[in-house]
Design brief:
The protein has six helices and no strands. By secondary structure, the chain is mainly alpha-helical.
């Protein structure tokens, strides 16, 4: 029976011997004035740090809950799709119209003369486009003057 107690005592002595230099290093560090000053600042700010930790923990828990909630994520995805879908459809429509207009302009071989332009000026869509172009160019000129 005395053999295991001797073995246990030897193990404890070896563990204590290896911890002694580590403890001495820690004590040496604690003796430095800058370390003591840092510890004082840390102790003075512990209430603030505890409050910040509580707030950050609550925020983390909220984010984890939201990120792992499949119903909420599905609803967010659906809401974004409802918002983006009309914009996407409109952009596709404009792109298709531009492609079709480019194809038509490439197919036409006739030149646009003065009388054809005068006739086009009567078209309400041409008038609307010209008014927009004029207003756009005026805004751009104003912005360039401000720079």
């Amino acid at each position: 029976m005395s053999q295991p107690n001797t073995q246990q005592a030897a193990n404890e002595a070896a563990a204590t011997a290896t911890q002694a230099p580590v403890q001495q290093d820690v004590l040496d560090q604690l003796m430095k004035p800058e370390v003591q000053q840092s510890l004082n600042v840390l102790v003075e700010n512990l209430p603030k740090l505890a409050e910040m930790t509580t707030v950050l923990t609550k925020a983390y828990d909220l984010v984890q809950t939201v990120a792992n909630d499949p119903v909420l994520m599905s609803d967010l995805k659906g809401g974004m799709e409802e918002f983006v879908k009309p914009l996407q459809d409109k952009a596709k429509g404009i792109a298709q119209a531009a492609i079709e207009a480019n194809e038509r302009s490439q197919d036409e071989t006739s030149t646009v003369g003065l009388f054809a332009m005068l006739k086009m000026l009567k078209d309400p869509q041409v008038q609307k486009t010209l008014r927009f172009t004029q207003a756009f160019l005026e805004v751009m000129a104003e912005r360039q003057r401000l720079k």
